[in-house]
Amino acid sequence: MWTMPGDQRASTTRLEPPGQRSRDERRHAIVARLAPALEDLLDEGAVYSDLSVAALSGAAGISRSRFYVYFEDTGDLLRALTEDAIVELFDATLAWWALPQDGTWEQLRTVTERIFATYRRHRHLLRAVEQVATHDSAVRQYFSTLFESGLEGYAAELAEGQTRGSLDPTLESHRTAELLASMTQSGLYELTATGQLDNPGRWIDSLTTIVWNTLYAPTHEPGQDGAPDHA
């Protein structure tokens, strides 16, 4: 299955100069150590943009000067902290487009539930990205590039599903992928901001039905897909 940033990392690894791997390993270790501490700070109401390098380096257990050995600034740290979360979210979403010809609404709901759970698990970091991207052009460009790469993967999966006969063959793959992904990203952000992601059952049902009706319903007989009338 297609995986966006992982492929990018693999291609860059081959070009690393001597000593780069050990530096990247140390950087990764710092990120792994800092991530849970930062999640706790954000969960307590801290705003990422308000956190200083001193506060972040202290949470990571390194000096302020050493922070700059591994990260250009707090935006660079945010990129490192959230890339794995975004890859995980993209990979979960790929399954939306991959049901078999006899797939059901219930199977699609299971995928949607996994997407919600993934977002909820990383909600503080993902919200921080949205907030920081409004004023940090480097963060905005970096995650915009990841999002566009993700769309290419979604569109490819959609096209394969159309070839299998499980997805509506009349859909334009890239435009459909972009609309559904953008709607979901914005919706999850708003649900998090308003505290509704803690009890998401009806939202999962509604989003599943939107995706089902868009992608799968035209290739399935009415009444044979398991979709509830109230969703």
Structural write-up:
The two termini are 30 Å apart. Helix 5 runs antiparallel to helix 6 (105-121), helix 5 (74-94) packs across helix 7 (123-133) and helix 6 (105-121) crosses helix 10. The protein contains 10 helices and no strands. It is mostly helical. The chain is elongated and about 65 Å long. The chain folds into 2 domains: 17-71, Arc Repressor Mutant, subunit A (Orthogonal Bundle), CATH 1.10.10.60; 81-231, Tetracycline Repressor, domain 2.
What attributes does this structure have?
disordered N terminus; 71% helix; 10 helices; Tetracycline Repressor, domain 2; single chain; 231 residues; Arc Repressor Mutant, subunit A; mainly alpha
Please summarize what this structure is.
With 231 residues, this protein is mainly α. Helices cover 71% and strands 0% of the residues.
Write the CATH homologous superfamily of the largest domain: Tetracycline Repressor, domain 2
Number of continuous helical runs? 10
What is the number of strand segments?
Answer: 0
- Helix/strand class: mainly alpha
Helix content: over 70%
Question: Helices and strands in order, then pairings?
Answer:
Blueprint lengths: L3 H10 L6 H24 L9 H8 L3 H7 L3 H21 L10 H17 L1 H11 L3 H28 L8 H21 L7 H16 L15
Helix pairs in contact: 2-3, 5-6, 5-7, 5-8, 6-10, 7-8, 8-9
